[in-house]
Amino acid sequence: MPMLLAVLTALPWATFGYETWHLVDVAQVVCPAPTSSNPDAPAFPEYNLGINYTSAMDVSAPHIVTFIRSSQQPVTVVFKIEDSTGAVVVPETTVDLQALSSTVPDSCSCTSPTIPPEVQGTYGQNYGRQCQAWDNPNCDEWWGNVSVGGWCCRPWCYASVDCPDAYSSSLLPGQFFSYAACNTYSPVSPCTWEEVREQNDPCKCRNSGSVFSDDMKAKFDLTYGSTCGSWDVQNCAQNYRPDQVDTWCCASWCYVDKECPSAIQSLNAGMEGILFWSENVCEDDAALVAQCPYKPQPNVSADDTSCDCLNITMPASIIESLGLNVSDYADYGQQCGPHDAWNCEVFYPNAQHDMWCCTSWCWVDPTCPTSRASTVWPGRFWSSERCDLVPDVISGCKYNLDACACRGQLPSGSLPDSFAANYGSSCSDWDSTNCYQVWGSDPDSGWNTSSDHEWCCDSWCYVNLECPIAKKSWLGIGYYFSYETCDDPPATYNESADTCDATRRLGESKAGRQLSGRRRGGSFSSSRRSFFSSSPRRRSPSATATTPRRRSSSAPSFWSPRRRAPISPRRRDVRRRAPPPPVPTPLSTRRRTTSMDGNVYTAGSGVPYGYNSRPMLMNNYGGTMPYQTPYGYSGYNAYPPNNNANVAMYAAGGFVVGAGAMYAYNSMYGDAYNYDSFNRRRFYDFRNPDYCIVNAQGSRYGDFMECQQCFHLYGPSYCPSARSCRTAAGCRYTTRESFNRDDLAATGFIPKDFVPPLKVTFTQIWGDDIDPDPITGICPPTTRSQAELIATFNKTMSFKPDLLLGSDETSS
User: Fold this and answer.
1) Residue ranges under compositional bias (Low complexity) (predicted)?
2) How far is CA 433 from CA 129, 406, 491, in A?
3) I want to staple 75 with a disulfide (CB 3.0 to 4.6 A). Which of 97, 319, 420, 566 is the partner?
4) CA distances from 499 to 423, 444, 700 (A)
5) Cβ-Cβ contacts under 8 Å for 589 (sequence gap 6 or more)
């Protein structure tokens, strides 16, 4: 059992199934801390699991700790919970999670009691006397339509007390009811209550166009966000500020109710607290997200020197290890330049090469707001903040010649009648005739602000939106053009005559060529790379530049977690969701003063809590009644395979990720590996590992694995990013197997009484399913021979969610 998943999140009984499961790294508790003789190795951090509050939490309601595990064997866990100030939330607790089984003892059977007349009047004379789905006909009337689900269709009866899930009845004092006694009977199928439950699901995609602000209606169609889709992939940079865009622009998402635990409030002005969206309810296009061109662009002041080029050189050993000539690449990243434009596939062999290979960048300080961690030179950072694109290199980028190629004739009706239908369709000096007559009086043409009108004689054409150097058309028709795509004819503009005279300009290329040498990859000087800062011949008039796209194409080797809206500390005492409507109670005897197992617990200032209704309990356990245990409740197969959950890899105390550090540290610094040359050295620092989820069928299906290794083994399409798992709300994870659930009934606390994030510290975890052996089990190698044996058998460092922790909101 390599991982333990633990849940500590608000889970109102009406929105079951969407709690956040916090990944517990069993290896970091069970395995000895790795050591290193490398003097540069940082200290291995103390391990903990962090739990932050989300907008879906009702922080004023009691919560309890829950463990979710794939193992059916006994597991012992020793843990404690503190808040960010060190206050004790849950004192050190040892819990022996018991073995789980679906076996029902032979003595568990229906008792067929006599039904009192007052009960018969509402439920019928045979209610519960034998196995039947008694709640199916009137489940919503008896229990409330927000609590219905598959449990309505399950058979049950009044049964003997030795049934494993026997609970005392509120209708018939002294009697017990059980579903286990009827486990040989099939549920009603199809179960129509599942459809009702789905309609009431707060995470169901909503068409929210009716509440759009006027500004949103001007930018978006009214169906925007109504279903799962990558709604922002085309226009994210135009519709949002540079510091707002990120890889979420390429993710699939939709609008949901604010009660959805993974809901995030809208970035659109005036929509705060009104519109909420979630990507966890939608499946992403893994390849699209991995190659997403959008990155956050914080506003960097002109006097901020952190983004200035550091003028440092990459070690020759790295260049040589790539098979490149050191003298040719000695200046790699030293100053601004398109350093990857000619050998991008060498520096990034596992990436999908595109226009980002031809953009300019340099090495910068990690404090630069737009810096990105390098995968080529671990520990260094790069940025394009102070770098301009080199037009000649962009227009001739061999990794995407189509982006800046002429797009052909515009659709009919796009151009004014005074222009030829084929205007701008191919490389030509389209403005060489009567240039002043056409553009001199146009206030948007830039004629009066341009000191030199040589552009009248330059060749150009309309290009695709994806071309980074393209400019918006003066005509305001939504199309883009480029001069750099084309070679110029041998002509000079005659201001007085408003003509282009056939005089070859100094340094001009051969006349008549419509595809320049730049379109075939730029200019070279012997074997050395060289590039232009700009062409001296380019005197095109100013136009509205597409600046949001100037730095949007960057290597898919790093992306930042989505900006999520934090909860205001001043409003943690406000209930985050409306309470569910009261459940109809035909009989006053059904009103409980104790929980389902007859116990009452208190949290905070004596606030009572406990499961006080059958739907509330069953909905948390996949539609079945759990078994009573010494520590609370346990449910076998509470979550079947292919269940969608939010899984968080989050740590308190300043470290980005709360799982996988053991593996990352050991393979980067540990003495089991040769730090300088061993082939399993990682790209990312162990404190900031870059994990993906393996979606390829096989033994590692569902594992978390370092992205570069996952790309190498399976390709980007089978390796969706797990970056958003490092947020408090977690990421969407589809379970590959069934999970069991254990509620620790006596661990109640009220979140608003504590300051987040909460820190869960694990002292010990052990069980029959936990094998610490480096070769056969979960621990990384500690010796060189073990590392070599693992490499021989291609044992990839990865981990699968097997144990999780969380907290459930209970009723009070």
Assistant:
1) 522-560
2) 96, 21, 12
3) 97
4) 18, 21, 69
5) 170, 171, 173
Q: Under 8 Å CB-to-CB from 26, ≥6 apart: which residues?
A: 1, 2, 3, 4, 765, 770, 778, 802, 803
Q: Residues with Cβ < 8 Å from 442, sequence gap 6 or more?
A: 474
3-state class of 161 per DSSP?
Answer: coil
pLDDT digits (tens, 9 = 90+) for 10-24: 333 323 334 778 888
Q: Annotate 465-533 with DSSP letters as a single string.
A: TT-TT-EE-TT-SS-EEESTTSPPPS-EEETTTTEEE--PPTT---TT-SS-GGGGT--EETTEE---S
The SS3 call for residue 519 is: helix
Is-contact 333 402, C-beta < 8 A? no
For residue 762, being part of any structural domain is answered with yes
CA angle 448, 450, 453 (to 5 degrees): 105
> Is 210 within 8 Å of 526 (Cβ atoms)?
no
Determine contact, residues 459/484, Cβ cutoff 8 Å: no
Count of positions (residues) in the chain: 812
Q: Which amino acid is at 151?
A: W
Is the C-alpha dihedral spanning 450, 455, 461, 464 positive or negative? negative
Question: Residue 602 and residue 598: Cα distance in Å, rounded?
Answer: 14
**Closest among 385, 299, 400 to 344, alpha carbons compared:** 400
What domain count does the chain have? 2
Q: Any idea what the Cα angle at residue 727 is, between residues 721 and 730, rounded to 5°?
A: 70
pTM over 0.70: no
| Residue 744 · residue 631 · CB < 8 Å | yes
**What is the helix (H) or strand (E) element at residue 789, kind and residue range?**
helix 784-792
Q: How far apart (Å, rounded) are the C-alpha atoms in residues 621 and 637?
A: 8
* Residue 261 maps to a domain: yes
**Residue 605, domain member (yes or no):** no
Q: What is the residue whose two structure tokens read 């990859």? A: 521
Is residue 393 assigned to a domain? Answer: no
The Cα–Cα gap between 489 and 681 comes to: 53
State the DSSP H helix or E strand holding residue 290, giving kind and residue range, or none if neither: helix 286-290
Q: Which of 192, 190, 195, 163 is nearest to 176 (CA)?
A: 163
Query: 111 falls in which pLDDT band (50, 70, 90)?
Result: very high
* Among candidate residues 256, 279, 302, the one where a domain is terminated: 279
Report the half-sphere exposure of 152 (CA within 13 A, side-chain side): 23
For residues 614 and 187, give the distance between their C-alpha atoms in angstroms, rounded to a whole number.
17
pLDDT, one tens digit per residue, over 762-789 is 999 998 888 888 877 888 787 778 877 7
Give me the helices (H) in 518-660, please.
614-619
Asked if the peptide bond before residue 190 counts as cis, ω within 30 degrees of 0, the response is: yes
Query: What digits encode the pLDDT tens for the residues 151-182?
Result: 899 999 999 988 988 888 878 888 999 999 99
Domain around 36? 3-81+637-809
Would you tell me how many other CB atoms lie within 10 Å of the CB of residue 524?
Answer: 12
